[in-house]
Amino acid sequence: MSNLKDKVAIVTGSGRGIGRDIALLLAKEGAKVVVNDLGGGSDGQGNDTKIADEVVQEIQDLGGDAVANYDSVADYESASNIIDTALSRFGRLDIVVNNAGILRDRMLFKMSEEEWDTVIAVHLKGSFNMTRAASTIFKEQKSGRFIHFTSTSGLIGNVGQANYSAAKLGIVGLSKSTALDMARYNVTSNAIAPFAWSRLIGTIPTETEDEKERVERLKQLSPAHIAPLVAFLASDEAADISGQIFGVRGKEIMVFSQPRPIRSVFNAKGWSVDSLSAIKGSLQSSFTPLEASAQVFPYAPLV
């Protein structure tokens, strides 16, 4: 396999889980890979450099080329250091996969400012930091691929994840704006919502039978299912795909709709509170149900 021969990729958070499988497949497809990972826990605490080193060794054992990086995506200067690692080791950069993430789940009325700020910093600001640092390189060379990771927690919603949901929906906006800003330079930007068992979603509560059943279904979803779509979007074959939101659920790949007006009402005299109350039903039939991700995807995954 050589769909990415001579390409250079950065995969953030690639020491474990989804990121690790992405790094391994990109390397198998011929890319040189920067394996970025702090080696922290699911909450972002701690630091273990051997986590990234082990993935680098796996890639090298398979005949690929990789280098480890331990910088934090949440810091603007550190993100630039990750980019510099690719340039100093491999001399170029073609692909940025914004996968790094943490969780600090808490009901909104109990969430601390620190729990909000930390999750936003890693997911949303981290994705911006990496995208901003790479964008000047991609602009200059008139080519590049950004692949961001969103979540149905943001696209649909989840209980106890206001920080994570806000960050993940924000990433969709970042990806779309990046696609628009960079289109003239032959740079694409897409987002993926993954369904896969990882240490992050291992924090899902299992207090009820329904919750236990859902977790057992999720455990069937390997992170390896996500990697082929990432490798495809990173290739020259996907040069005409940008600004899209994909989902991968086992062996099922989906494309998500994006917000567009679906129904409107007009009043030549302008609206008052009373007149809006009178026509509420005209719009209400088109309201989106208040659902969490598990209610939209209750069916068994295709594994």
From TrEMBL:
The keyword Oxidoreductase applies. The keyword ATP-binding does not apply. GO terms for molecular function: oxidoreductase activity. Keywords: Oxidoreductase. It is an enzyme of class 1 (oxidoreductase). It holds the Pfam family adh_short. SUPFAM superfamilies: NAD(P)-binding Rossmann-fold domains. Its EC number is 1.1.1.-. Residues 7-203 form the Ketoreductase domain. GO terms for biological process: bile acid metabolic process. InterPro entries: KR_dom, NAD(P)-bd_dom_sf, Peroxisomal_Beta-Oxidation, Sc_DH/Rdtase_CS, SDR_fam. Belongs to the short-chain dehydrogenases/reductases (SDR) family. This is Putative short-chain type dehydrogenase/reductase.
